[in-house]
Amino acid sequence: MPVESPFHSPLRWLNNQPYLLLSLTSLFWAGNIVLGRYVAGHVPPMTLSCLRWIGVYLILRPFARPHLKRDWPALRARLPLMVLLSATGFAINNALSYWALQYTQALNALLIQSSGPLFVALLSLLLFGVRLTWAKLAGIMISLAGVLTIILRGDVAALASIQFNKGDVMLAGALLAFGLYSALMPRRPMAHQLSLISFTTGCGAALLFPFAVWEISTGVTLRYDLLTLATLLYVVIFPSTLAYLFFNRGIALIGPNRAAPFIHLVPVFGSVMAILLLGEEPRLFHLMGYALVLAGVVIASRQGSAKA
Asked: What is the reported pTM?
């Protein structure tokens, strides 16, 4: 009998391609940073964060309902962990990121974002004793060098001119929360990924709701225009629904330490967007940075002997 092609079911094939899933996640998150900075001051951060996860929950609920019903005993048995995953990966991380973009520059945001894999590795080590192999550490450092090459435009001296503000502290806090989420994900209950993301987005929205109400009470409200609608549509579909499904599946397939270096692709995709959408001229430092990031990601994401 003929062997069935893996492309017979595209979604099933995609669901087992961790490197593609994690690359697409970084692409969607890069667009989220660019858009978040663009709409800063136009769309309130707490309201945007809350509506983002309400939208995802409503989209996924019909598909997740049978899985949630079956997996509820397992989720309820680990309820404190599920609430912590909701808080770190969806409420705190997201709200702090959008809030920070009200105060910081894109350069600072990308620079701080590049330290994400180190947060994941450090928290995985401190909490669960998950050690990096030398190859994974080398890969992270190589890709970090590539990120810095892109952000600093090949000029190391530019580091001295960067000034940090309260927005940068918020971004660091968001990364710390997301690093904890990534480190905790392998300890999640055994459940369908639609059950997991439906619960965590719904719980994340519930945690954010009081803060959104407070924000509205201060007079900071949504502007009902085309930019707000386009922003909500993008953040609900791409960096939220698809990206978190892809990221969670990527971690499930290869573990947090091998998945984390893909975060370094976020500033790479961000710079490509600047070239394509904003007319920035491609330079040699772009190519050097891309090569270093891709080399580091390949090295760090390879299977090693240490626990992944």
From this structure: 0.78
